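Help! Submission page says 'invalid entity' but I think these are all valid:
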Amino acid sequence: MSSLQELQDLIHEKYGIEASALDPNASMRDKGFDSLALVEFQFAIEDHFGISLPDVDSHIDTLAELAAVVDRIKASQAA
Amino acid sequence: MNEVAITGLGVVSPHGDDPHAMFAALMQARSALTLVYPELPKPTAAATVEFDASRWFTKLQLAGVDRVSQFAVAAADLAMRDAAAAGTVEPQRMGVYVGCGMGGAAALDAAYRGGARVPPLTIPAFMPNAPAAHVAMRQRALGPVLTYSVACASSAVAIAEAAQAVQRGEIDLAVAGGAEALIVPGVILAWQAMQTLASFAPGEAASAVRPFALERSGFALGEGAAFVILESAERARRRGATCYAVLAGWGLSCDATHLTKPDASGQARALRQALARADLSPPQVGYCNAHGTATRIGDVVERAALAEVWGPQLDQLQVSSTKALHAHLLGAAGALEAVITILALHHRQVPPNAHVQDMDPQCELHLVRHVHTAAPDLQAAISNSFAFGGTNSVLLFRRP
């Protein structure tokens, strides 16, 4: 199951941004997530899902990509 | 040499974010001190700020921005608006000079309390030059963007340095002031351990700080930010800006005797420097916003320094420490008190030195004892800021 919906809820809760205002396939940086905000958001994701994100995520640019990484890690850490 | 004009004021203070309303509250001796963190073993008074960050930041923009930087961005922006200065200066010719004692104390406190999970933006949130950097980004200042960490004199030093740069023509416009936000349990406990914070009877937090009083027992911590806009008086006239006051003189000196114990002769040197630079003699200065931290030793030493410079004319100088009402903003204290001093000149009223039943005979000064004291002849005034570390800063303002 995709984590996209949960990530959208987390973004809404943390930053007050509606899911409809952030196209999962658009650049998050263009929506104001600079590198610092992304680092902070990844920290929140780790807390929320109880997972540990690898440090390779600096080229993640869309919410869909982020959701895919979270899905993969959830799957591998559950295994 | 260029004359340096103050053309904008901005505060995020325990008395709100309108400088004139803040001044009116001080004139009424309204204290902003309250009991904080009742769970602490020793009762603690502090002056906190009611702050709505959403007026300046989206939630997304707040990533890694500590409360201290939020205050700085807000107060600097209010000062720029007050001066109607935005767009009047080439970004390269604009400087930002910020005093900050402790940086993002809340970020550091949270990191210690978070156990193994330290938020990834703790460092950018904590670093003491973050407030200046955030102000620069918000105002697009491309010139010198500098931070002065000189304990309780930080922001007074920052204003003096900004004035110097404006006077020499190195920049056209300076945003100068300070910010501090360290009212977190760890920092309070550290100050208590130093035995510098005021003690008070239950229910008397508001009047805990009693500068120059016989019964004084120290200061209370305050938080907030204050900024002024500096530019040459000629430039201010040309663009039709309001000139609140001229920063006519400033003095910087160091005691170089003791890390925390103040020294009257060091302070007197800063006072004389400020007078000399302004080409004024002591009786021409009618009001002193004292450093006045209400510590046993500090107030006596400051009185001795003023007596050394003013001599037999000391009684002509009206003195008050407004820290009784807004508490000690440490790195932001010099800037906040500079704004108060400027408004005293502007309104020709001097704020009271509150909470004094009996003046300490060792602090014999012409204290402003009453609320709503008019000063119709006031032409010039000084603001003193004396730091741990021995650095002394005196700012001397006069009416334009």
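Support: the input was valid. A stray whitespace character was the problem, and the output above is from the cleaned input. Chain B touches chain A at residues 58-61, 63-64, 117, 119-121, 124 (CB under 8 Å).
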